[in-house]
Amino acid sequence: MTTKTLFNKIWDRHVVTERHGQQLLYIDRHLCHDGSYGAFDRLRERGLGVRRPDQTFMTPDHYTPTHSASLDDVPDPRAKELAEAIKVNAEEFGITAFPWGDRRQGIAHVVGPEQGITLPGLTMVCGDSHTSTHGALGCIAFGIGSSEVSHVLATQCLWQKRPKTMRITINGSLGFGVTAKDVILAIIRKISAFGGTGYAIEYAGPAIRDMSMEGRLTICNMTIEAGSRFGMVAPDEKTFQYVKGRPFAPEGEKWDEALAFWKTLPSDEEAAFDTEVSLDGADIAPMVTWGNSPHDAIEVTERLPDPDAESNAERRAAMVSAYEYMDLKPGMAATDIKPDRVFIGACTNARIEDLRSAAAVAKGRKAVIPAMVVPGSGLVKAQAEAEGLDKVFTDAGFEWRFAGCSMCVGMNGDTLKPGERSASTSNRNFRGRQGPGSRTHLVSPAMAAAAAVTGTFTDVRKLMEGA
Questions:
Q1: Are residues 177 and 319 both part of a single domain?
Q2: What is the CATH number of the domain that holds 378?
Q3: Could you list the residue range(s) of the whole structural domain that residue 216 is in?
Q4: Which residues contact 72 (CB under 8 A, 6 or more apart)?
Q5: Closest CA to 445 of 334, 377, 349
Q6: Is 404 part of a structural domain of the chain?
Q7: pTM greater than 0.90 (yes/no)
Q8: In a domain? residue 24
Q9: Are 426 and 446 in contact (CB under 8 A)?
């Protein structure tokens, strides 16, 4: 009997045909956001419809404002037009949408799992690199380009080359105050920002099994930052309970059938992976990035590394350049870095668990630098408000915003000024990501809140012990 990995079990079920080393995959779910507008224009130009509108879903997120409930407050008229196009395109092509003003609207990678659109065993795509997020529920999910968005809309299929497989095992348990964000930064630090290139990554081990679904979503979200388009966690009882009862999840007999199938998906015990990587969960600490790649990460208790100690000339040059851009020096303590602003949000860390962890640090304290909290969807916002988290944040001097991508990507009015430094729960610290000349440090929600109330990067464990 042939043994298979989780990835190959799902991939094989979706292969339509093969040609010239590539395989045509059937796509079960297609998520579109306001950046997908061009694909619909191309359909119109060619007189094409959407092949499976019932399997296509839309929500605006990248261009929407978070400081206001009105699209009239979007600073760029073109951005307003793109956000409004969601509703127009959905009505014309018969697609389910969560448009601006709908309480279910939000970041596509928060909305998909939240609505039960994301399910184990599926293939999913979206015109956004962080589509890998959805693999946390045991499906194959990956980002695609603009022309590919058009192709999937028209055919519900996509040509792809099968990647190799990698399993990353996190053994043992995570220590006090250590989160999923710290785990994925530690992984990228170990394998590099290119370590996953050409692989589909399955995350496994006791520390992953112990994680909440929100934590697994964070891990898979940043898989793309390790060079891989595919991040996955095998579905288990935690997954099934998370999915059950959500609006687009199966019900009744279909639920029973789906559940029986989902239980067959985990990698077979003897399944072989092309590459194996392991870390000890107890060795992972709260992390903070210092450079212009998620690979540039250190523990908050460490000092910034010395380029002269790096044997690889290319890597050494990149470190020197990053220090110049970030206005930092080797040997500095992480706790000596002082951010100008704090951003808590993005498809990486804008779910209810993320907001709870940040609020636990902010409670009873006061922000000493500007800080904003942006829920991942209108439903997350409503739940946080029902739990009183919004009041915790506003009492501490944090801004409480509407749902959207916000300062994760500088295309919606939420940006840093040139030279400003952020403590950000987003997924990318590339140059200019949060606005021209911006300097981004990636951290967990709890670490971001700690920076807000202390004015510097701080070992959040010390604040949690004293809470």
A1: no
A2: 3.30.499.10
A3: 165-233+267-283
A4: 80
A5: 349
A6: yes
A7: yes
A8: yes
A9: no
Same domain for 399 and 250 = no
Is residue 293 assigned to a domain? no
Across the strands, what pairs with 343?
372, 424
Burial string for 111-138 (b: 16+ CB within 10 Å, else e) reads: bbbbbbbbbbbbbbbbbbbbbbbbbbbb
352-362 and 378-386 are packed helices; what angle lies between their axes, rounded to 10 degrees? 40
**56 beta partners:** 30
In a domain, 30, yes or no: yes
Number of compact structural domains in the chain:
3
Tens place of pLDDT per residue across the chain (467 aa): 689 999 999 999 999 999 999 999 999 999 999 999 899 999 999 999 999 999 999 999 999 989 988 888 877 888 888 888 999 999 999 999 999 999 999 999 999 999 999 999 999 999 999 999 999 999 999 999 999 999 999 999 999 999 999 999 999 999 999 999 999 999 999 999 999 999 999 999 999 999 999 999 999 999 999 999 999 999 999 999 999 999 999 999 999 999 999 999 999 999 999 999 999 999 999 999 999 999 999 999 999 999 999 999 999 999 999 999 999 999 999 999 999 999 999 999 999 999 999 999 999 999 999 999 999 999 999 999 999 999 999 999 999 999 999 999 888 889 999 999 999 999 999 999 999 999 999 999 999 999 999 999 999 999 998 65
